[in-house]
Each structure stands twice: as C-alpha cells, then as structure tokens.
UniProtKB/TrEMBL annotation:
Organism classification: Bacteria, Bacillati, Actinomycetota, Actinomycetes, Kitasatosporales
CDD domains in alphabetical order: AmyAc_Pullulanase_LD-like, E_set_Pullulanase
Signal peptide residues on this chain, from the entry's feature table: 1-34
InterPro entries referenced in this protein's UniProt entry, alphabetically: GH (IPR017853), Glyco_hydro_13_N (IPR004193), Glyco_hydro_b (IPR013780), Ig-like_fold (IPR013783), Ig_E-set (IPR014756), Pullul_strch (IPR011839), Pullul_strch_C (IPR024561), Pullulanase_N2 (IPR040671)
Protein name: Pullulanase
Length: 885
C-alpha cells in the first residue's frame, strides 16, 4: 500500500518550506490501495529528447568529447552542441539552463526507428570510441509529441462505431507490433506512420466482444522488449475486475434507461451559486435499511429511501449539485460482491473506545468492497463494484439511472476525476498506459524515476496525448452520461492550458448536436501548489493563483482553517479556531498559547473568514481587525495571500470534505470536553454557515448537516463501511463512538481520542441531529432566495458587502456582515452578544422570515433595537436580519 498523501506532504514540509507556506500543505490525505509498480531497478534516464532535433543533457561538451544517441543494433544518432531557443525554454522551463545538443540533420529520419528500442545517450572521449565518459538512458515524451501528436491529437481512439461496424484504435508509436486479441483470436492491426496510431475495422458481430491489445514494445523499466496484453485506455466498457475491454457502443439504445434521451435536468446553476454535497456512492446507502440497492448506483433510484428523501429535502432548500467521489473504474476493490471480504467481528458489540473495531476492519480492508477510489485504472468506464452486475456494460445503464435519479430529486451531478495519477505504472498488471507507451504517460523526474508526489505514479497531462486523454474522457462523461460538472483531484498537477482545453471542449457541446449544453457544466478542483511541478517549474499550473479569472474554481483552505482551527497535520488536534472556541471558550490545550496569543489569532481568523465571505477576492477592500484598510490579497495566510480570486466563483468555500476529520469530529477534538451536545450542534451549523453564506460556490461533505462522524478517523479512504457509512436515520446515531479510528493514520491521536469517544456530551441524539440539519437548510434557503448573496462581479461584491464593526474595537468571536439589505451576525462565542452598528440606527430590521418561522427556536430569540441599531444574537448562532422588518 502506498503511504497516504499526508505522509508524503509532511516529509516534504520537513525538508523545505514551499513558496505557498502552510497553504502548500493541502488538505488531501487520500491514497490508493495500489500495488507498487513492478519495475526493475532501471538505470537513470538523465537525457531528454525534447523534439526531433534537440536533446537536453547534463553532460557538458568539450573539445575532447563526442556525444551521440545509441539505439538498437549499433545504430547511432550524431549530436552537436547547441542552445535552446526561447520557445524551447518556455516549453521546458525546468531544463532551460542545461546543455543542449542538436541532432545531425542527416540522422533525423532514423528517429522513428530509434524510438522503438533501447536508447542511450553516450559521451565518449574524442578519438577513442571505447572510452565512454558518461552513459544514460533517454526520456522521450517530447520527441514523441513532436513527431506524432500533430496528427494523433485528432484521432478517435478506442472503439468507434460507424453504423454497425466498429473501428478499434490505440496510440502506440514506439510499439514494434500491435495486434488485437478479440474474444480469444488474434486480429492484425495497421500502423499509421504519421500519427503512431494502430487501428483495425471489424464486423458487426464484434459488438460487445471482449478484447485486449497485444503490444510488443521496449520496456525501459525491465530493460527488455516485452509483449504486453493490455486493456484499452479508451475503454467504454469492461468485464468484471477490468480483465478485458468490451467492443461497446455507448450510443447503443440497449444501454439507455427509459426516459434517458428526454431527461430534463434541474435548471443549471451558475458556479458562483453552486451549493454542493460531496458524496461517496457506497457511503450513501450501505447502512440505509430503506434502500433496495445498498452500496450501488441504483440506490439513487430508490425514491422513498431515507437517503433519497434527505437529498430531496436538501435540494428543495437550495443544494444544487451532488459531487460523487470517484466513480470511474478504479483498481483496488474486487468488483464481484461474492469476492468481497467482510469484517468477521461483532463490531457493534465492542466498546466505543476499543481498538478492536479498527483491527477487525483492517484485516479485510485489502479485499473488502470499500475504497474512496482515488486509484484510476480506466478513466472513462463506470466502476463495476457499484453495479448490480460488473461483468459487462450494465454498469453504463445503471450509472445513467443514477444520474436520472439525482435529476428527479432536483440535483445535478458532479464527478470527482483523478487524471493526475494512475493506480500503477511500469510492468505492473494494473498498469495500462505505461505498458502501451512506456515512459510517456507517466511524469518522470530529472533522473528518469517516476514522479509520485501525488501519492502514486503520476501522470503527465503536459504531454499532448495524456492531455488529449483528459479532454476526451471528460467530453465522453458529459455527452454520454450527462454529467453536469467535474472536480479535478490535485488540479495543480495539471497545466492550466490542459484545464482550459477541457473548458473549451465542453463549451463546444450543444443540446442539438450532443444532447447537452456544455456551457452549463461547472469545473472546479484542488489548486494546491507542491511537488515536482511547484511554482510553475514545468508549466503554468492550474493552481489557486493561476486559475483566478478563468471561471474554474479552486478549493480555498483559508477560511476552512480559520473556522476549524489549526491545520490538517497538527500534532495536537485540539488547536482551536473561530467556530471551535478559540479564546472565547478555551479547551486548555497548551497548543492554544496564552490568552493574548489566542485573542490575536482569533481576530486574524476573523479577517480570513471575512475574505472568505467575499469569495476570497484579491482586491476586496475592508478594515481588518487591526484597523488597517487592506485588500484580501494583503491578509496573510501562513505567508501567502488570503485573497486570490478575481471574481465570485473563482474560489470554492468549504468547512469539511472527505479529507481529514469530518467537521463534527474536528469539533469534538477542539471544543471543551464538557460542551453539551446541543452546543456542539450549534457550533456545527455556525461553521457551515461561513461557507454557505459566502459569495461564490460552497461545498460540504454529505451528512455534515446531520453531524456526521467517522469516529475521529482523519483518513478514511480504506476504513470500510463501519467508519464511513452515512446514517440517515438519527436513531442510528451519527457514526460517533464506533471505536478508535484505524491505527495507520490515527494512532498518534489515540491518547486524545480515547477519552472523547466515551464522552456522553459528544454523542448527539435525534434532537441535535435533526435540529442541526433543519437549521442548516434554513440558511440554505436564505442563501438561495436572497440575491445579494449572488454578486456577479468583484465590483458588485465591493459595493454590497461590508463589515461595519471591523477594526480595533471588533468583538472577538463575532463577525457582523452587512450585505445589501441584510445584516448577518456570526456569533461563535458561547454567550449572547450585542452588536451595535451606529450607521443603522433608526433603520428597520427584523430577523429574516425564514429564520423567524424556521426550525431553530434559539435563533428566534435574537433581537434588534431600532433606536440604536443593535443586533443581539444568542451564543453559537448565525442570525440573518432583513431590512424593512
């Protein structure tokens, strides 16, 4: 098993501070339960052949040296010293200062032959052929792009039907031969020399037949020519456990559920107004006794299940999208239910603070039916373990039924996509891309080793055909599955140009031609800046700063950390924040510091939250807690600008997601242990409100409104149903107290967790669970119905939004926000607070009608004194006041 991303990031942080400071340590800890790539100890590959005429290599030429490329059977390509052009330096900034060599024009017609076998860069002593001074393998993605991508970019890869006849095509420019293994018989394929694409056209009876490609190719990882039997990277359907691709036409009417062609989606919501529920397919229904299809796509068609009823309530309140954790074919779960292991213990009978539950779950984790799925195997086929029958194209029909079910509930569908890495590389049996074009699709470091900063074998979307795969795959999901949005995992490891190419391709889709309006499809992702690509080292990245102004959002960690307190990797998880009692209700942890230090941190956290409420706008100007007039970009977030967005919609607000502890579990760690269940629920709603009532899009983890817990598990990617399942019925609890969380990522926190798991005050009942959800839905309705929350421009935000009590006299733990005709008071303190806004004295305000007649009896005790402009709000409460009351 690969180490969790958090481990990798902690190691990196210990070695060096990245340019974005703590902001560069992202809240991503998921990992793939993948096999280690099966590779030999390959020799370094320190030379890079970047185009048909140019090789970059650390070896310095002198008058006493000769350089050349050596390939199979004693062939050589002569090299002469050269300099990189400005265009080449721009394309390869990490190579800009290195020695370059020009390929002798007389040898350039040998390039295609040389690339189909072992290739070595050799430096010899002049006049002595046998005196080798330096030898290294050669990286070849650049020259492959130069030679073949011009024509290959326009190729239609995978199975493509023309009428009833399929054509199968695969890009394999370095292969010596490619044939098709079709249902047990071998079919020859033809190579197009201009594109490097191998293809064959078949008969109508090929439809739905299983196939693989048989690729004879030089594999540098094992130092020999191999013949790989590989599934299709452009597969449209698969047999169980991804053993074979299927010659399947996604336009086949048999794969369309009733009503698919005429499916009417809920009205598209602009990204700046999107309110998103992040949901894992298995979590949704695995513990729902009212679902007829637990753990499956079809659970979303069970309209009367507890889960679907709850999603319907959220949709009616203003939730517009369900964001599904990876639902493409991933490599770490047995797809047949009969092959899936189950814990053999009576988990429910064990004590709340026992370590036995996690031990029992860990024993079957490698073979159970659960994984988050951040371990891609085939990017454009639905995952089989969620299907009623994984063996064939039924998963396509059922995925479409899921999309229908969500649409019928009033929700549009977002897919979490993971193009930044694969489950395996090299000659591993689960390596698809790298066994077809070795050394191309995966990103390599300077020495030719595999980049793994993403947690796993990294891909290289900066290479033309990997970038094409990203675009083609996204377009397929949009056209064939009517997916309404995409969330890019580790988007900062993609070039900005690649994500903009996705946007352009989607914008070209029309209802008349494609059955979908591509312009309405939303895009957002993790714009973290780290690893071998950090600070635009290899290309302009799709990071938070760089994506501003593109209409593609990035997750904002600024307000998230300010609301929760601390960061994802604190040794002491009790570090408090705005919503968790910092200064106003200290928990006694020595990590909190002195009262003066806590007060200063709290006021700075309030400034970060104000920037978040503006939509994280870089140019939004306000008075900070120190009395200074500042812009969002001038507020510090661990050494980085807090504000980076150019317009509402550039930054996505959230208080929790699948990574790290759930919001409720963070509150358990951080609030004083004696905090009542009722106050914990109120703090949860307040924390959610800082994202819900912000400008721009907001996301929350499904079940968070129901106080969802994972029993303090900070990285539940492989923790099974026991720790992950959502409990829609409050009588079943919220998931808290199901044992100590798995040791792999939590054991260091067990001394803090053990006493909390048996704390009665931390175990909410139905009044707290249902009350929190109802109060949250009231806030959603306010956000949806009040247009002031939907400013379309930064100028509009600046005009409408202010924080009238900011400055040196600001109340610690309280933020008062004025937005158009609304006043919103976020009182995170445990006691009632009064906020007087002199400028509003004499103005008529009243508690917003939705709250005045809503579910939360406590917020109804909020008061307003017109004569003085004073708003009085109970502790741990968000009150929204409307003018003219």
């Amino acid at each position: 098993m690969k180490p969790p991303r958090a481990t990798l990031f902690r190691t990196a942080a210990a070695l060096a501070t990245l340019a974005l400071g703590a902001a560069a340590v992202p809240a991503v800890s998921q990992t793939a339960r993948a096999a280690t790539p099966a590779t030999a100890e390959a020799a370094p590959a320190e030379a890079q052949w970047i185009d048909r005429a140019t090789v970059v290599w650390r070896a310095e030429h002198t008058a006493e040296t000769v350089e050349e490329l050596s390939y199979a059977d004693g062939g050589t390509l002569r090299l002469t010293p050269a300099s990189l052009t400005d265009a080449q330096k721009a394309a390869y900034p990490h190579l800009a200062g290195r020695p370059a060599y020009r390929l002798d024009p007389r040898d350039r017609d040998k390039a295609a032959t040389a690339l189909r076998g072992p290739l070595t860069a050799v430096q010899r002593a002049a006049g002595d052929h046998d005196d080798v001074l330096h030898r290294t393998r050669v990286q070849i993605p650049g020259v492959l792009d130069d030679l073949y991508a011009g024509r290959a970019r326009s190729a239609r890869l995978g199975p493509v039907f023309h009428g009833a006849r399929p054509t199968l095509s695969v890009w394999a420019p370095t292969a010596r031969s490619v044939s098709l293994d079709l249902d047990g018989r071998t079919v020859a394929m033809r190579r197009d020399p201009g594109s490097g694409v191998w293809s064959v056209t078949g008969d109508p009876d090929w439809r739905d037949k299983p196939y693989r490609y048989r690729v004879e190719v030089w594999a540098p990882s094992v130092g020999k020519t191999v013949t790989n039997e590989v599934t299709d990277p452009y597969s449209t359907a698969l047999t169980a456990d991804s053993a074979r691709s299927l010659v399947t036409d996604l336009a086949d009417p048999r794969l369309a559920p009733a009503g698919w062609a005429a499916l009417k989606k809920p009205k598209a919501v602009p990204l700046r107004d999107a309110r998103i529920q992040e949901l894992q397919i298995r979590d949704f229904s695995s513990a729902d006794r009212t679902s007829a299809h637990p753990g499956q796509y079809l659970a979303f068609t069970d309209r009367d299940s507890d889960g679907m009823r709850h999603l319907g309530r959220l949709a009616r309140s203003g939730t517009s999208y369900v964001h599904l954790l990876p639902a493409f074919d991933f490599g770490t779960v047995p797809e047949r239910r009969s092959d899936q292991a189950r814990p053999g213990c009576d988990l429910a009978a064990l004590p709340a603070d026992s370590d036995q539950q996690q031990k029992c779950v860990a024993e079957t984790a490698a073979k159970d039916g659960f994984n988050w799925g951040y371990d891609p195997l085939h990017y454009t086929v639905p995952e089989g373990s969620y299907a009623g029958d994984p063996d064939g194209p039924a998963r396509t029909r059922e995925f479409r039924q899921m999309v229908q079910g969500l649409a019928h509930a009033g929700l549009r569908t977002v897919m979490d996509v993971v193009y930044n890495h694969t489950v395996a590389a090299g000659q591993d049996e689960k390596s698809v891309l790298d066994r077809i074009v070795p050394g191309y699709y995966q990103r390599l470091l300077d020495d030719g080793s595999l980049a793994t900063s993403t947690c796993c074998p990294g891909t290289a979307p900066e290479h033309a055909m990997m970038g094409k795969l990203v675009v083609d795959s996204i377009v397929t999901w949009a056209r064939q599955y009517k997916v309404d949005g995409f969330r890019f995992d580790l988007m900062g490891h993609h070039p900005k140009a690649n994500i903009l190419a996705v946007r352009k391709a989607l914008d070209a889709l029309t209802p008349a031609k494609d059955g979908v309006d591509g312009t309405s499809i939303i895009l957002y992702g993790e714009g973290w800046n780290f690893g071998e690509v950090a600070d635009d080292a290899r290309f302009v990245q799709a990071t938070q700063r760089n994506m501003a102004g593109t209409g593609i959002a990035t997750f904002s960690d600024r307000a998230r950390d300010a609301v929760r307190g601390g960061g994802p990797f604190d040794e002491d998880p009790r570090v408090q924040g705005f919503a968790t009692g910092l200064f106003t209700d200290p928990n006694g942890s020595p990590a909190g510091g002195s009262p003066d230090e806590q007060r200063a941190r709290l006021l700075h956290a309030q400034d970060l939250i104000k920037v978040g409420l503006s939509g994280n706008l870089a140019d939004y100007a306000f008075t900070d807690s120190g009395g200074r007039r500042v812009k969002g970009s001038e507020v510090d977030y661990n050494g980085s600008p807090a504000g980076y967005a150019a317009a509402p919609g550039d930054a996505l607000a959230y208080a929790d997601a699948h990574d790290n502890e759930t919001l409720y579990d963070a509150l358990v760690y951080k609030l004083p242990a004696a905090t009542s269940a009722a106050d914990r629920a109120r703090a949860q709603v307040l924390a959610l409100a800082t994202a819900t009532l912000s400008q721009g899009p907001a996301l929350s983890q499904a079940g968070t409104d129901l106080l969802r817990s994972k029993s303090l598990d900070r990285n539940s990617f492989d923790s099974g149903d026991w720790f992950n399942a959502i409990h829609w019925d409050c009588a079943s609890g919220n998931g808290f107290g199901r044992g100590l969380p798995p040791a792999a990522d939590n054991e260091s926190k067990w001394p803090y967790a053990k006493p909390l798991l048996t704390n009665p005050a931390a175990r909410p009942g139905c009044p707290e669970i249902t009350g929190a959800s109802a109060a949250y839905r009231d806030l959603l309705r306010i956000r949806t119905t009040e247009k002031a929350f939907s400013q379309g421009t930064a100028e509009g935000v600046q005009k409408a939004l202010s924080f009238p009590l900011s400055g040196t006299g600001e109340t610690p733990g309280v933020i008062t926000m004025r937005l158009g005709g609304l006043v919103v008071v976020f009182n995170a303190t445990p006691s009632r607070q009064s906020q007087t806004v002199p400028a509003l004295a004499g103005s008529p305000y009243a508690l917003h009608p939705i709250q005045a007649h809503g579910a939360d009896a406590t917020v109804r005790t909020s008061r307003y004194e017109r004569a003085t402009g004073t708003f009085t709000v109970p502790g741990r409460t968000v009150a929204v006041y409307a003018a003219g009351g």
